[in-house]
Amino acid sequence: MGMRERETQSVRGRGSGHNPANRFERLSYEPDKDNPDQDPAPKTQFFVDRSRSVIARNDSPDIPFSASLNPYRGCEHGCAYCYARPTHEYLGWSAGLDFESRIMVKLDAPTLLRRELSSRGWSPQVLALSGVTDPYQPIERRLELTRRCLQVLCEFRNPVTLITKNHLITRDADLLGDLAAHHACGAWLSMTTLDGELARVLEPRASHPNRGSRLSKS
Fold first, then answer.
1. CA-based nearest residue to 160, from 149, 169, 168, 170
2. What predicted TM-score, i.e. pTM, was given to this entire model?
3. Helical pair 145-156 and 173-180, crossing angle rounded to 10 deg
4. Rounded Cα gap, residues 86 and 93, in angstroms
5. What is the total count of domains within the chain?
6. Mean pLDDT over all residues of the chain?
């Protein structure tokens, strides 16, 4: 199989069809196309991220916020165009299938967030949740890390901004509403296309673009 053919091969339910070589690693893995036992569509794996802090800071003039919180690293939505894919290479993985099938989860994120907001060194400011991967990707339904972080932000009335492609954000309307009552919340839905078939190719595990219209008619 040539390089061009391999790179255009699709994997059902995934935005990427392969795992490109990691630019920071000297060795790379090439799948054996003749091995019938090799699963071409890897199952999602979750790993505990034991970071000791959760608020990341930046001083880039091109980014409208200086502090952000990412409860997850990697994103199962699998958007083919995601700008965050290369960040997985810093973990020794690939920006391709690894990014959407190997997800790091910060189980202590709510606790660490409360500690950092309580610190004398914290100056109240807008916190982006999250700036790298979607805070409402599928695993959030079970782990509720984003919701629990929002509960902490409500306690401190700390302003937050977030963007998502998942209908799951409606679950947290109560917390977002509480923050909005204090002018401390900005939430956006990212929609690439209204074409359902195209959406399944570009962002296979994000919410269907017609989800809202179907609910409004029911």
1. 149
2. 0.83
3. 20
4. 9
5. 1
6. 87
Mean pLDDT by groups of 10 residues along the chain of 218 residues: 45 75 69 61 91 93 92 95 94 93 97 97 93 94 98 97 96 98 96 93 92 50
The answer to whether position 16 is within a domain reads no
Q: Under a CB-based contact definition with an 8 Å cutoff, are residues 137 and 99 in contact?
A: no
Q: Are 71 and 135 in contact (CB under 8 A)?
A: yes
Is 21 inside any structural domain? no
Q: Under DSSP, is residue 45 helix (H, G, I), strand (E, B) or coil?
A: strand
CA dist., res. 182 & res. 191, Å (int): 27
Distance, in Å, from the CA atom of 77 to the CA atom of 83, rounded to the nearest integer, reads: 13
Instruction: Tell whether 110 is covered by a domain.
Output: yes
Per-residue confidence (pLDDT) for residue 216, from 0 to 100: 42
Written as six digits, the tokens of 42 are: 């890897």
Per the structure, the complete domain to which residue 67 belongs is given by 44-213
DSSP letters for 120-162: TTPPP--EEE-SSS-TTSTTHHHH-HHHHHHHHHHHHT--EEE
Residue 3 lies in a domain: no
Q: Which amino acid type is present at position 99?
A: F
